[in-house]
Specification:
By secondary structure, the protein is an alpha+beta fold. It has a domain of 172 residues. The protein is 54% helix and 7% strand. The protein is built from 24 helices and seven strands. Strands 4-3-2-1-7 form a five-stranded antiparallel beta sheet, covered by helices on one side. Strand 1 and strand 2 form a beta hairpin. Helix 11 packs across helix 12 and helix 12 packs across helix 13. Belongs to the peptidase C19 family. It comes from Nippostrongylus brasiliensis.
Length: 632
């Protein structure tokens, strides 16, 4: 096939059909079969594609001058999808002034500013121009139990071919037939079928047809939602058939159109109808899962290059199906044997997150939202994800800062994606603490230095985003609950980073984060929670990169706040840190400032234990003196 196609010769002339019938009779017969009445008004009336039908020449009128030999001299290769992509040009060097040079007669590849000689071998031509499928090697990103399809489609192929007429044209011998010869009936039937299929497919891609089909399915959904039905088994069977046809039409026809070719109202109607069918019928959900597996999960890979709205619609549809399946599974409404396919699909969804570097942001965001729905909408959803390794995948996602490595569109909200990623991570961590069975799926070390540094960066980068900061505080708190050495390792890492001067300007934000985490640990009954803060403050006290004057002031303000709240055990930690600092630098607080603080503490404690607050805790003067001795 390669040798035939790339002999680079073609003969340009309309397709000829000869039969024993007269030319006019045959023309009328074909017109009646293939063209509608509105297209038969004129022999040259334009079709819907904007081209004019050409009259067929009779054999007697053919001459050698109508036939010329053409040579392929240019190829335009397109890669990507219908909305975005890249073009590479290939030109055959044939300029007269280049005769005798090493490049004459060779193919030149022009890829933006890169120009090189293209080796026009059969293998190179097939690889770069033909498109089609290729055999891919198994990716190391996926576990061995996830079977990826080896046969995949290339995203690039020859889009435009440029031919140049060769001289002289008389070198091609044409035998002019003086009489019409018969054509086999099989060939005539094949031509008719081809044209029939062409017109059918043309209508499949029209907005009018999409609206009609979507409207019909929407009416059927309304019927299924009514309570007046008596034939539920028949309706289930009909729903499966309707879903099969409509899902096939959307995935293989309508959703493949460019964004400009699809009407948003019709597109939304088609998505709503599919989602309603999946939510209403258990049989439809099972059929949906089987369709995904039967196509070897190709729909997952097609989402990597699909338009944004199509990608979002697909993940919403899959999320509906999986959430309803989990709800049925929790209520024991489905047999255990029916859980295999959805479990495999959940594993594929997690694998899609691993492909963040090769997919566009909406595909990644859609998969992330689908996983989040499983966690927040179903009690068993988080456990299903954890058992398939989602905890480590999401942890790696936060650690690598995917938003910095993926090209993003201007309308993509990166902060919302970070919110969603952290919410999912927090929900999975909570599940591991609540579900005893989830502990066996817990990775040995789900955190890394990169995770800690990324959390610190987000906390100091978005100090006014309270929701994001609370998620980060919750993340560190749960990691310490899950793996008890986490916060100690985090403090050591921060001290090391501060020592080399990385976080010298972010010190207030880091302190705020660790104070919040220690408070959460202390409130939940974790003993010695504030020792991590003491480690951090004590380790930073002699650092040349920090403003040492701010350290005791911070300690005193924290200690004062805790003493005013009669939390003396926590205050001792701050006093101890202050004593360590005092050994190395000169105190910056005057005695009068100390006396003012001491007086406020004393007055507040007396008021708290007065007659009006008899229920308050008893305050020992020795406890107050702890703070006094430390400051002196």
């Amino acid at each position: 096939f390669i040798s035939l196609f790339f002999s680079f010769h073609c003969f340009i002339d309309p397709f000829q059909v000869y039969n024993t019938e007269s030319e006019e009779s045959l023309k009328s017969n074909v017109d009646n079969r293939l063209y509608s009445s509105e297209q038969r008004d004129s022999p040259t009336s334009p079709s819907r594609w904007g081209r004019k039908r050409r009259k067929t020449s009779s054999p007697s009128s053919l001459s050698s001058s109508d036939y010329c030999e053409y040579e392929l001299v240019g190829v335009l290769v397109h890669s990507g999808g219908a909305r975005a992509g890249h073009y590479v040009s290939y030109v055959k060097e044939r300029r007269p002034e280049m005769v005798g040079t090493p490049t004459y007669g060779k193919w030149i590849e022009l890829n933006d500013a890169d120009v090189r000689i293209f080796p026009a071998t059969a293998e190179a031509i097939e690889s770069e121009w033909f498109g089609g499928s290729f055999t891919a090697s198994t990716s190391a990103l996926f576990s061995s139990r996830i079977d990826l399809p080896k046969e995949r489609l290339r995203s690039y192929s020859a889009y435009v071919l440029l031919y140049e007429r060769k001289e002289p044209c008389c070198t091609v011998s044409i035998s002019n037939r003086t009489s019409a010869s018969s054509i086999p009936s099989s060939l005539l039937k094949a031509v008719e079928n081809e044209n029939k299929i062409f017109f059918q497919e043309r209508d499949l891609f029209s907005s009018e047809y999409a609206y009609a089909v979507s409207k019909a399915v929407s009416h059927f959904v309304t019927y299924l939602e009514s309570d007046k039905r008596d034939t539920r088994e028949e309706d289930e069977s009909m729903a499966v058939q309707v879903f099969n046809m409509f899902f096939d039409y959307c995935c293989n026809s309508y959703w493949r159109l460019s964004y400009e070719s699809r009407q948003s109202q019709v597109f939304d109607m088609s998505v709503s109808a599919l989602r309603a069918l999946v939510r209403l019928s258990q049989a439809v959900r099972q059929q949906f899962f089987e369709l995904i597996v039967e196509c070897n999960y190709k729909v997952f890979y097609s989402m990597l290059t699909s338009p944004d709205d199509v990608c979002s619609a697909w993940w919403r549809l899959l999320g509906d199906a999986l959430c309803c399946w989990l709800e049925d599974s929790d209520a024991d409404r489905i047999p255990k044997s029916a859980s295999k396919l959805p479990t495999e699909i959940i594993a594929r969804t997690i694998a899609q997150i691993r492909m963040v570097d090769t997919s566009h942001e909406w595909c990644f965001f859609g998969a992330l939202k689908c996983m989040s729905r499983l966690v927040f909408d179903s009690p068993s959803g988080a456990f299903c994800l954890i058992s398939d390794g989602a905890l480590q995948v999401v942890s790696d996602l936060i650690s690598t800062d995917w938003a910095a490595n993926v090209p993003l569109h201007s309308n993509f909200d990166v902060r919302s994606a970070r919110h969603l990623t952290l919410r999912l991570f927090v929900a999975l961590l909570k599940c591991t603490l609540k579900e005893p069975q989830a502990e066996k799926y817990l990775p040995p070390k789900i955190y890394s230095h990169s995770l800690v540094l990324q959390c610190l960066w987000m906390y100091t980068e978005y100090p006014n985003d309270r929701k994001l900061c609370e998620l980060l505080e919750e993340t560190l708190y749960l990691l310490e609950q899950t793996q008890t050495t986490f916060l100690e390792d985090a403090v050591k890492l921060v001290l090391n980073e501060i020592w080399v001067g990385i976080y010298k300007d972010s010190w207030p934000g880091i302190m705020k984060l660790f104070v919040a985490v220690c408070r959460k640990l202390d409130d939940s009954g974790v003993g010695g929670a504030f020792r991590y803060l003491a480690m951090l403050l004590d380790g930073c006290s002699g650092n040349n990169y920090l403003n040492e004057k701010n350290i005791p002031e911070g300690l005193i303000s924290q200690a004062e706040e805790l003493i005013l709240r009669f939390q003396f055990n926590k205050a001792r930690v701050y006093v101890k840190c202050f004593n360590e600092w005092q050994r190395e630098v000169t105190p910056c607080m005057s005695e009068k400032e100390f006396e003012d603080i001491y007086a406020r503490v004393r007055i507040t404690s007396m008021e708290y234990n007065g007659p009006e607050n008899e229920s308050g805790p008893e305050v020992d003067d020795d406890e107050i003196e702890v703070f006094s001795e430390g400051l002196r």
